[in-house]
Amino acid sequence: MIQKKICMLGAFAVGKTSLVARYVHGIFSEKYQTTVGVKIDKKVVTVGHQEVSLVLWDLYGEDQFQRVQPFYLRGSSGYLLVADGTRSETLEVAQSIQQRAQEVLGPVPFILMLNKRDLPWAVSEAQLNDLRASGWDIRYTSAKTGEGVEESFESLAKRMLEQS
Ligand code: GDP
Q1: Ligand 1 centre from 55 Cα, in Å?
Q2: Signal peptide span per the entry (predicted)?
C-alpha cells in the first residue's frame, strides 16, 4: 500500500494534536498535552479506488519554529496548516510557517484548517479573502465537534495523490 506523510504545522495550542486525535481515534480531550516529542499516527483511507496509508506527523510541546525544521518536514507529500479561529495572530504565524514549508518542500499541497469553530470567532472574512485570492484552500474545523475534520484530511489526501 502506498504511504503518504503529512505534517501538522501551526502555532502553539491551535489544536494540531486534537485534530489528529479526532481524525484517527474519534476522541477529544480538553486537557493540554505538555509532553515534548514527535507523535506519528497512521490512518488508511480510500481515495477514489486507491487505498493509501496517511502517516501523520505531529510535533507537540514545542514552539512553532521547531515545527518547520527540515528533518521534520522531509518526505512530506503535503501538510496541514492549523490556525486557531479564536486567536487571529495564529493566522499570521501560519502564513510565515507556510513560507518556510514551501522553501523546504516546494509547492506540495496544503490546506489551512481554521480550528475551534465551536468557540467565539476572532478571524474576519477580510483576512481570509486575501489568502483565498492567492489560492489557499481554507476549511473551518472543530476538533471538539468534529466539524470539517475528516473532509480536510481527505481533501488533502486526494490532492496529494493527484500530484504524485
Ligand atoms: P497543539 O499544541 O496545536 O497540538 O494544540 P492541542 O491539540 O494540544 O490543543 C490545545 C488546546 O485547545 C487543548 O486544550 C484542546 O483541548 C483545545 N482544543 C483543540 N481544538 C479545539 C476545538 O476545536 N475546540 C475547542 N473548544 N477546543 C479545542
Answers
A1: 21
A2: none
Q: 121 CB under 6 A from ligand 1?
A: no
The rounded Å distance from CA 67 to ligand 1 centre is 17
Predicted model pTM: 0.95
Q: What's the pLDDT tens digit per position in 8-61? A: 999 989 999 999 999 999 999 887 766 677 889 999 999 989 999 999 999 876
- Domain 2-163 matching CATH 3.40.50.300: the answer reads yes
Mutate to test the pocket of ligand 1, among 8, 14, 18, 140 (most ligand atoms within 8 A of CB): 18
Ligand 1 centroid distance, CA of 15 (Å): 4
Query: Predicted ipTM?
Result: 0.99
Please name the residue ranges forming H helices in the chain.
16-20, 70-73, 89-105, 125-133, 149-163
> Nearest 10 degrees: CA dihedral of 20, 99, 102, 9?
-10
Q: Per DSSP, what are the bridge partners of residue 58? A: 39
> Cβ atoms within 10 A of the Cβ of 64, count?
18
Ligand 1 center to 49 CA (angstroms): 33
Cβ(143) – ligand 1 distance below 6 Å: yes
Domain ranges (residues) in the chain = 2-163
